[in-house]
Amino acid sequence: MTLPAADLAVHGESSSAPPTEAARKSIAGRSPTRIAFDRLRKDPIAVICFVIVLFFAAIAIFAPWVQSLFGVSTDTVLASTRIDLVTRLPKIGPPNHGFTMDHPFGVAPGSGTDNLAVWIEGCRTSLFLATVATVLSTFIGVTLGLVAGFVGGAVDAVISFFTDLFLSFPFLLGALAVAPIISERYGTDIDKLRVVSFYSLVFILVIFGWMGVARLVRGEVLSLREREFVKAARVIGVPTSRILVREILPNLLAPIVVSVSLSLPGYVAAEAGLSYLGIGVFGRESWGQTVNGATSYWEIYPLFLLEPVIGIAVLVVALNLLGDAIRDAFDPKTRR
Amino acid sequence: MNRKKALVAGVSAATLALTLAACGGGDDDKSSKDKFNETLQSGGKNPDAVGPAPQPEGAQTGGEITILAPDPDDGPTSLDPAGLWSVTDNAIAQDLLFRSLTTWQQNPETGEYTLVPDLATDLGTPNEDFTEWTFTLKDGIKWETGDPVTAEEVKFGMERSFDAETFATGPGAAYSKPYFEGGDTYNGPYAKGAEDFPAISVDGNTLTLKMSTPFAEMDYYGIFPAMGPVPLDAPAADYGLKPLSTGPYKIEKYVPNQELVLVPNDQWDPATDPARNQFPDKYTFEFGGDNAVADKTALSDSGSTTISTAMLSNDYTKAIEDGLQDQVLVGPQPCTSFVMPNYDKVKELEVRQALAFAYAYEDIWSAGGYLPGVTRANGVTDPELGFGLLPPGMAGRIPWNPEIDGETIQYDPEHAKELLAKAGYEPGEYEVSFVYDATSQEGKDAAKQRELGYEESGFSVKAYPYTAGSLYDVWTDPDNALYKKINLLGTAWCQDWPSAATFVPPILETGQPYNTGNFSEESIDAEMDRIRTLPVDEQADAWGALENKVMTEFQPVINAGFYQGTYAIGSDIGGFANDTTVGGAPDYRTIFVK
């Protein structure tokens, strides 16, 4: 509570009065995380982006219901029922006919598959894949970073060596090399291929995605382990695992949250990129694959290309801005 | 000739067009339907033709022409005459670089092609049963170096075609080795312990060819560069990188699979050549580039002397929308695409017939990037085209469009179910499986349509995606893991010359590599052997009759469409024609810069 401005001149000293007992308690009770979330709540960009991300997440999670709500599905229909065989462009909806509620996003040229259903499924694939990859790479990165930083010595040297090794290996090259091997190996079993191609993509993303977190965590741990509370815990004989999990990990929450929020959009974009290159998931719809097939239609059916592009762009930008906002909120040095 | 590149890439060569588009080419207003029917009035012979070649109206010399053969067409890996057997490469080699015993002459007024003598003075003289052919060579034919071309060099060039190992891509294994006397054991002049090959003998300017099997179409086989001269000191491996020219142009620069620059050959004498012309000052071929860039270049002002050999469907639609009908051409390709049920696995005739009714022709084409009735067509789009093996226009062809149990072939799931029931299968009981190209969206979409068609027709379906390369890797390799899983295979086949003898045996004869369904009937093999010994003027009709008989009695293949290609042509290009004799490529004999 501040004094009226007029009083400032009179007293000419502190800009704020000593806090009341209640106020002091409320401040004392707020953890750094809580402070960060309070700051986030007041950041309009963060709130807007969070709503957008929540919207995409809802679409992804409730995809089947959303599709039946609109009455669309990704099922194959005979092309001739929706496609004018003379031009290979849709008989209904854009680009040559008006908007129709049956197919709010129109239908794909050539095959006649509903665009909205494909878009929704693509959103689901993107977010699901990005989430799984983020969780796994964060888990691996945090674990290795903790161990390397805390144990030190030879263990640290080995883990740091592998971190550098994977950082130096070109990601795209690895992806391009692994994809054909997978499809060759599981090409004779369609059901397995569908699952395997998905998790092989996750694997590729994770194997080339854990190093950043590991380095970040290792650096933090190196400074944390010299702190008094860690030393005290050691002195009284707390087991190492317990020190790591109960003493150090909570102090790493901020950098981990930041890295998660920034790696999600990275994976969404990477999935789209790999699918565009033809080494993405098989048997699932994906924005990247739609973009790949739609580029040649830009001049005669621009909407077909724009839909997945806008989907990717909005989701990635929202996730990125949200990540930035989270980082700012957790960083005590920033003031906005 | 197989059309590997086109089939595998499917989409890239595919075309999307408006109805208007079918009359592209500007000079005629025929519907696409007519275009398919008038495809090939070719195949006539004129043994008396002499140079110089007929000239298209308004032809003039000078200027430079650029040909863009975009992805997936990566052009010649080698220009060795003995190894040339693909549409793009042979068009360039036959029209511009290498002269051979015979060649095709285009009539610029009608567009018809006639077989005429090239190096030889006539179309060769066969003996009564076509086991011996005599060709007399013209005088005054020179290499680009100015040295005269000798009969010994022609003999040497022909002998090289027997080396099926060094020139695995060439036509020798299909025509030289089976027909020439001793050809099955002779492996060319580079083989260890190679001796003189007595089946080809030289006497002065005269070549005498001895056959072990009657070969009535030796004169047609003479169009291949493999039936032309090669310098006696040519090495086996690298000659194809710097071959010597005998035609109107010679190589200035050649980077395999990328670029080929040709300049006029001043040693070429038009008076000796009844087919070729020498109009532009330079030809630049660029292979494997970006399709969209190629199309845009050819249609822009800066590309007024450029040709794109395979337009993207959407660029084609755009060009028609923009009123550029004069700069696009839909040209027939004498090729047919087939679905081939594995004859050992799909045993019942009724099931194979049901498959013909279960193939959603137009839907599959549309999803696969082809325009029904224009870039792909068969009896579905025009009953007169039928569903046979032979592409329209081939001599002796009888369109095969039968009634099977009272219905003509079209996508008809109900009738397919009836046929399945007749074979004793409940809906969902019979499983069909095929492999498809999953590297492109169109490939996947087309496979989905096909799957849906089969399912609606009472089959259960397994569709295997393939991304590791060409589908022929699977179809032609019995050891492939996928080969063992599938029972529907395929092939896309093009004629080598307008004769059913280059079409029926490769698809239907036992043991042929592109008979991927392993169709094998002793009676049919015997009939093919019999037809080969018939008098030449009876053969065409006999092949046509055999084709109909096989299709009716066995339905060994399902016609998945005849082909047409599309070109984007720069505004200053004159005399452009689609050369059907080579399989659908620009006819470089008559192109000039306006």
TrEMBL record, chain A:
Keywords: Cell membrane, Membrane, Transmembrane, Transmembrane helix, Transport. It is found in: Cell membrane. GO terms for biological process: transmembrane transport. The keyword Transmembrane applies. GO terms for cellular component: plasma membrane. Belongs to the binding-protein-dependent transport system permease family. This is ABC transporter permease. It comes from Nocardioides humilatus.
Automatic annotation (TrEMBL), chain B:
InterPro entries: Peptide/Ni-bd, SBP_5, SBP_5_dom. Residues 114-512 form the Solute-binding protein family domain. One of its GO terms (molecular function) is peptide transmembrane transporter activity. Keywords: Signal. One of its GO terms (cellular component) is periplasmic space. Residues 1-21 form the signal peptide. Residues 24-83 are annotated as: Disordered. Residues 27-37 have a biased composition (Basic and acidic residues). Pfam families: SBP_bac_5. The keyword rRNA-binding does not apply. One of its GO terms (biological process) is peptide transport. This is Solute-binding protein family 5 domain-containing protein. It comes from Nocardioides humilatus.
